[in-house]
Give the backbone structure.
Amino acid sequence: MHRCYFSRYFFSILSFFVLFSSAIWSKPYQVGMQVKFYQDDQRLHFDQAHQRPVTTHLFYPTQARTHKKILSTKMFHFGEVIPDALYAQDHKRPLILVSHGSGGVASQMLWLVEKLVEQGYIVAALNHHGNTGFEPKGYQEGYDLWWERAQDLHVVLDKLSQERFWSQQIDFNRVGLLGFSLGGYTVLSGAGAITDNKRLHTFCQAHPKDGNCQSYIETSDKEKAEVATHKTYHQAMQTMSKDYTLPHLKAVVALSPAVVPAFTIQSLKRIQTPIQLIVGSKDRITLPEFNASLAHQYLSNSQLYTLPEVNHFAFLALCTKVGKMFFSLNSHAGNLCYSPQGVERQQVHNQAVSKTLSFFSQYLPVQYKSVNKTS
């Protein structure tokens, strides 16, 4: 009798812990991916012969479990996705647009994107033309005309709203932004921060060695002079101080944002959208006092988290063994794999994931809204 009672008691407790641990650790969704080769009909490619590409990686929830593909390069391991998997079509979901850092790629932030998708978000990660490793070459304009990136956000939002399928799966009344480094600048611009290049010029006269004032692409004076004659350059100069605020924006997360001194103080003060700023205390590329902390000083609804001993590149994807060796031997390339002693990049990622998921769940929760599955 007692033995029977103990057995029932033991197995009921065991079942509880199995179910409890399953609820905690199981992933509600896997990560599906489609690549969208969008173009901006209003702006030219920097080759002056085609329309501007805005190639976008769309990551979305799927219940598929097979045919996973590892996204990686020789230098970085990005993560796992299931290309063209069947979408988990059960309710409308909020959309988060992601902007990479200077010279980066859409999949560079997959370590964070996959966690968002697993919780039910749809994420569109952009490759910014002329300033992305996704393209075979970079362009001077892509590195100099950084406010063009904010326009890309609008293009992707418009293109998705015009697609028959995705227009019915995305709740366009609930949009979020996520960006790293120059992508952090981009998402702040998408929140309403206005760029004034004269402000950056003044800042760089006082701080010529600051990371915001360095050129990250090598071009000759002759090439720079030629760029200044291009139609794309003149068009971009006319739109520099435009308001690029996205409609229905609910929340913004900026990791180590760059070029903040270029924003007008008045525009930062006007932003009402909740913004979370995350930066490392050892960031020497986008110094916190000139960027994240400066933005936080003027934003009316922001949170600032400074991660101790963390550097700028800790927010990049995990490095491969080849990547670690390459960057350690080629200091001129910048050691993108370096971490201060005692700091593990995976631990930094875990902290950023926790802060980001908590923030978006508060201001941009995944709410269940029915969709028409026959479309």
In short: Residues 1-25 have pLDDT under 50 and may be disordered.
